[in-house]
Design brief:
Layout lengths: L6 E11 L6 E5 L5 E4 L7 H7 L7 E6 L13 E4 L5 E2 L2 E2 L9 E5 L5 E9 L4 E4 L9 E12 L2 H6 L11
Antiparallel strand pairs: 1-2, 1-3, 1-11, 4-11, 5-10, 6-7, 8-9, 9-10
The structure holds zinc ion (ZN).
Length: 168
């Protein structure tokens, strides 16, 4: 059975920056494989395209340029915010505003957005709302472990259910 739309695919991979010798960004191993329903639009299209048609046991390696993954790093989504925006009951939680911390905030529509603390100055807190992988060329190597048909329920829900129909 081949990887494609409405298949549940289990795979392991290493994600590196730029190429096979690049810095390791993420490693997914056999004891906890990546299991995903393909064709529902929740994965990078370039990632699905690269895996489409592979069968269980197949190895893969491919790159995805930043422009086709999480986009180029955009300086327009770096903002300096007033420290008061981080206060709860007038107090900033100790350790919250450390450089490199990821903080979930809300956009104008109330949707959660993750930002990373770049700097804390007298003017405020410099927050970067780029995706952490923005501007990075991705390189995947890995192996397909299993391909199965999704159940009607999984397709209706748009996600994978566990072996006992467990819902996360
Ligand atoms: Zn469900």
């Amino acid at each position: 059975m081949k990887v494609g739309s409405n298949k549940v695919v289990s795979l392991i991979y290493e994600l590196r920056e730029d190429d096979a010798n690049g810095d390791l960004i993420q490693k997914v191993e056999k004891d906890s494989p990546f299991v995903h329903l393909f064709g529902v639009g929740s994965l990078l299209p370039a990632f699905e395209n690269a895996l489409e048609g592979l069968e269980a046991g197949a190895s893969f390696s491919f790159g995805i340029p930043a422009a086709e993954s999480y986009g180029e790093h955009n300086p327009e989504v770096i903002y300096t915010l007033e420290k008061s925006m981080f206060e709860i009951d007038g107090v900033v939680e100790e350790g919250l505003l450390e450089i490199g911390n990821q903080i979930t905030m809300q956009d104008q529509d109330g949707n959660p957005v993750d930002g990373i603390v770049l700097d804390v100055t007298d003017e405020g807190v410099v927050m970067d709302f780029n995706h952490p992988l923005a501007g990075i060329n991705l390189y995947f190597t890995g192996k397909i472990l299993e391909v199965r048909d999704a159940t009607a329920e999984e397709i209706a829900h748009g996600h994978v259910h566990g072996p006992h129909g467990h819902h996360h």
